[in-house]
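Researcher: Re-running this chain for the archive, since the previous output was lost when a drive failed. Same request as before.
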Amino acid sequence: MKPTPFQILKFLNSTNCKKCGFETCLAFATHIYAYGPKAIDKCPHLTEEIKKKIIALFPHDKSDSPTTMIEMWEAYRLKLKDLPRKDISKVNGITTDEKGNLIFLSLGDRIIVTDNDILNENATLTEHDKILFYYYLLHVHDLSGKYEFCDYRNFYAKLKVRDVKQEEFEIKLQNAVGNNIKALEDSLIKLGGEIYHEFKKVYDISYIVHIFPRVPVLILYRKGDEDFEPYCKFMFDKGCNVCFDSEGLEHLADYIVERIIKNL
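Model: Regenerated structure tokens:
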């Protein structure tokens, strides 16, 4: 059985120095949990002795079931060629090119699905990104994209139920934007965002962006004043639950936030 992120965290120096590329040591421990012990080299503080102890936490027997994101993606990669491309290309917003590759937009970026990979023309996709994209293509016909929005907490897995006012990805965007509403609006427009008028009187920003065709996300934002801090809220189409769980949507929300911040 794989160790938990907290078991891995005990072997890290917990200084949150960010030299590994992650905001906290816990985030890095979660990355090791997802991607396996090969990821430990990103931390410059780990001695060879500590690395061996972390590696020892992971099962050595090779089972048929993949245990890391890298292994999971390699298993799904082999199935890409079996996707029903003709049927999928009938979905509005998805086409095929002369080579038979599936083409669609994700936040304005052109995504290409070949027989053995999923590529973003403008950025590098992680294995986790590709797995979620693959799930999307498998279930795209079951998605309605009707703009029936609900709170992210409606998608919580039973083990993740918690009493929170905001999610980390909402707070992250809030901290980056502050009261710079114009910059946020410009960034959302660059990502293909469109105004959603139902909440326009309540929020300074009420925009829909599409992660994929038929997967709209509503981003609401209200600037702060003397009494209240800025406030950000993400809402997801109810139909998303046919192919994404709460963890998957959280990853996609982080994906959106990073793109928005990059354009600010």
